[in-house]
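name: query_chain
kind: protein
chains: 1
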Amino acid sequence: MGSVEDAVELLLRFKGDNLKHRIAGLEGDARSLDGSGTRQMNETEGIDSDLLQALRKVKLASSQIDVAIHAAGILAVLPHILEPGEVIESLSLGAGNTGRAFDVETSHRVAEFKFINWAGGSETIRQNQTFKDFFYLAEHHTSKKRQLALLGLEHPLKFFNGRRSISTVLNTKRVTQDFRAKYGERFERVRDYFATMKDRVEFVDVTPFVPELAALG
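structure:
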């Protein structure tokens, strides 16, 4: 099996114009066939080791798409937000922060980026992740601007001003230990902590700068 492009071509050839219809057709074609018949059908339809290897290659490539979006998205946004004379000091473009405190640190700011579209429903995981980013930005000792870059602000701000309990958003051992070490049981709900710390972190909607990101999040 060759490149990812070759693998995608095999996948597209297999699925045809409509994968659902393609599968329904194969189900009908296979009815009443024996082992020899299914072998012949597979040969005719191109269902072989090359196809299976192609599907695996495409699956592996697509599993990294979120990392690629994160990296490319940050780099696409930076030209729009960097100020004259502002220079990048460190970048963390991969999954996690790879040992760096934040996604971006410049001479003027520290920033975290979350390229996810909020639907406004029950979004526990993204709420937890966004709270974590806000917490570490708010608590970071720096004279630089602290920014949390998001795709739209309506739903994130509704969450930060909402009634979720602090105990439910502290979803990892590290965040729980860091938060409780500083505040104990002082804050009961997310909105209580946010009301105290909101002026320390600027929320930035990046969709006006790179609207294509909204279709990817």
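note: The beta strands are 88-91, 104-106, 109-117, 145-151, 202-205.
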